[in-house]
Design goal:
five-stranded mixed barrel, 225 residues, 28% strand, 11 strands, alpha+beta, two-stranded antiparallel sheet
Length: 225
């Protein structure tokens, strides 16, 4: 066998294979993670009534997000369980708008629904816009910072309270934000397909690389007679 690789082409090919391999591994990890989640026990939602606990004239905190691929504004308010309990930042409703939709909290009263309260880590996306607390606008959910807008200086974490279902454009749907890590709408099989695609491109690149070197006489599997 004789092999005389072209230096520049070899370097570019190796770098490309490393990138394609990493992309495939990332999608494979997502596939495994989602497959494992499918076997996890279902989330538990309790039927608890929450009473809005905000000063007069207060506005809801507006959090930008996506539901079904479309932009929405989730509107949150400080609330406590009826009869007393720790303050939570409770989702009031969801508005399918591209622009912020302010909401006055006066007169909202009690939120009576199946919901769950949990601590949501503050996680800012790489492409998230800057928050504007002075306008009650958020692109990263930060329960403690939002509660501070109402003069609440919590010693510990402020929990998020999310209902089991939400209504978007008049259609009720399961709330994708009702867990510490919002639900990714892509099914596991899609990630498996992406992984195989990236790895397939890598395999094709190796084939092109070998065929090109063979056509140039730089790759021979048998010694010339």
């Amino acid at each position: 066998m004789r092999f005389q690789p072209l230096p520049v082409m070899t370097v570019v090919t190796v770098v490309s294979l490393v990138i394609l391999g990493m992309l495939g591994q990332w999608q494979w990890a997502r596939y495994q993670d989602k497959t494992a989640r499918a076997d996890a026990p279902p989330l538990v939602f309790d039927g608890v009534s929450y009473e809005i606990d905000a000063p007069p004239g207060a506005q809801a905190q507006l959090v930008y997000g996506l539901v079904g691929g479309g932009p929405v504004w989730r509107r949150y308010a400080p609330a406590r369980p009826v009869g007393g309990g720790d303050l939570v930042m409770a989702l009031v409703d969801v508005v399918a708008e591209t622009e912020p939709a302010p909401l006055a909290l006066d007169g909202l009263g009690v939120l009576d629904r199946a919901s769950r309260s949990f601590e949501r880590p503050v996680s800012r996306g790489s492409f998230a816009l800057a928050d504007r607390p002075e306008e009650n606008i958020w692109h990263t959910f930060d329960a403690a910072a939002m509660a501070a807008q109402y003069g609440v200086d919590a010693a510990g974490p402020v929990l998020a309270n999310e209902p089991q279902t939400i209504t978007v454009n008049g259609r009720p749907t399961l709330n994708p934000f009702a867990s510490p890590e919002p639900e990714d709408p892509l099914p596991p099989a899609r990630h498996l397909g992406y992984a195989l695609t990236w790895w397939g491109i890598g395999a094709g690149l190796i084939g092109v690389y070998l065929v090109y070197h063979h056509s140039r006489g730089r790759l021979r599997f048998r010694r010339a007679a």
